[in-house]
């Protein structure tokens, strides 16, 4: 499904461009989304978690089917469809400040996310090769962070006018970005099943079975799926409730004549993103070998310890700046770990089922969030936010030992067919 050469762009530049574009629009949409949910939509802590649960149910339901479709038909097409749906969901969420509309929007952009999840990584891995993709992932993460800063600044300025305005413009922007990708995104190294040989359901079944076999037999993939599940059990509550604690548990100081939450949440997002970018650049500069190591289990174990400490520290903090420091420690560790883990997973998956396996790992996280989110949200309502957040941190404690136990078996190489 390659585009004519006169319209096609370099794959790496295209990947950097749409990762950066999505990061900008995500910063625009999500910087003030929690404030919007609390202030304009009026969601309770349990409703906040349920919003995320609906999103994860959509991811759970569609992650593997959309991954299989991308493995059989086109990764490029999967990415384009995904961004169209994500944009539509964001636009709806901003247009109608009601709980039901927000839930429907989660379904839309959750479905869109599953089309991009795995497909973007599988696409660029095939286009540049398994040996080079680790560097691309790290650089893309840094571009993401820099672009997110721009989106965050714009969100803060627009939020002074209306909390929903950044979300509406983000939805429109993502839809337009999908249109641009339809023109410039090339796909040279993916070979879909010929139409004459395509038996859709049988091929989908075979691709799923191949992906499942990889997930079951390769220690790295199996352990990363389990880690993703545990992370999901914890993350839904923390991701949704940290903003509630900040908004209800602390008073913002007045700076430049304002204590408006829109201003402060923009500042907090900027500081967090800037710190994550600096940390990523420093680690990549000081220890590039660890960032692209074939078996980065030690580095990931250390980073996961920081994540556990950050979540529990945030839960226990009684002072605004201590809480923020703990949260930023957690976010920095996540930022550094993500491209390292992504490259590690991609190196251990054959091209033929790469997107399907990545989708399976992502689905493990969605399952965890669906299972863990509502009970922790209910716990917050029955006891306190602090209790729910502490439990959220304790759930993460098995992750460091799991990283360390991953077998150092040599990753298998695979060619053939492959599939944000």
From TrEMBL:
Classification via PANTHER family: PERMEASE, MAJOR FACILITATOR SUPERFAMILY-RELATED, TRANSPORT PROTEIN-RELATED
Subcellular localization, as worded in the UniProt entry: Cell membrane
Principal location: membrane
Signal peptide: none
One Gene Ontology cellular component: plasma membrane
InterPro entries: MFS, MFS_DHA3_Transporter, MFS_dom, MFS_trans_sf
Annotated ranges, domain Major facilitator superfamily (MFS) profile: 1-410
CDD domains: MFS
Membrane topology: Multi-pass membrane protein
SUPFAM superfamilies: MFS general substrate transporter
Keywords: Membrane, Transmembrane, Transmembrane helix
Origin superkingdom: Bacteria
Ranges annotated as spanning the membrane: 21-38, 50-73, 80-109, 167-185, 224-242, 262-284, 296-317, 385-404
Annotated GO MF terms: transmembrane transporter activity
Protein name, entry field: MFS transporter
